[in-house]
Amino acid sequence: MNKIITISLALCFSLLASDTPTRTGTFPDKEMKAQNKKIAKLVAKEISSTLPQVIDKYTTLASVKNADTTLVYTFEINTGVKSDEAVQKEDRTRMKQAVTEGVCQSSRKFLEAGINTSYVYVSAKTKTRLFQFDIAQKDCSTSLN
Which domain holds residue 124? Predict the structure, then answer.
């Protein structure tokens, strides 16, 4: 999956770069935010074209959308016989750490550019939201420095 995301991101960056005039100096914040919105929208559209995508025997990437400059990935989890409450209580800390580390490594350039990531996990059975992990550059301070 990381290869697909990386290729999609590279494609989106190259498409945007070809349409964006070159300039020197500091890029104004307003223009940077507008560009980041475009990038997030293009990435979401590109990844969405390959969905749903089975990640492992428990997890399926169901959708990718953009909310402003944030990419929102929604995963469905097959929790088996575990209740939603048990999964929320027992797995949250472990999953948050694993997801944050993974995003900090795989999306480093996006995070540095101000494009944040949100991972939403829902139960495949009940469609109940189990977790949401919002990750910005500040959450990766040790990984990005």
Answer: 2-144
pLDDT tens string 27-51: 677 888 888 899 999 999 999 999 9
The C-alpha atoms of residue 117 and residue 72 are separated, in whole angstroms, by: 6
CA distance linking residue 15 with residue 9, whole number of Å = 10
**Domain at 109, CATH number:** 3.30.300.250
Q: What are phi and psi of 110, to 5 degrees?
A: -60, -50
Q: How many domains does the chain have?
A: 1
Write the CA distances from 136 to 19, 76, 95, integer angstroms: 27, 22, 16
Q: What's this model's pTM, rounded to 2 decimal places?
A: 0.77
The distance between the two most distant Cα atoms of the chain, rounded to a whole number of Å, is 58
List of residues 6+ apart from 109 with CB closer than 8 A: 9
Among 61, 39, 69, 67, CA closest to 121: 61
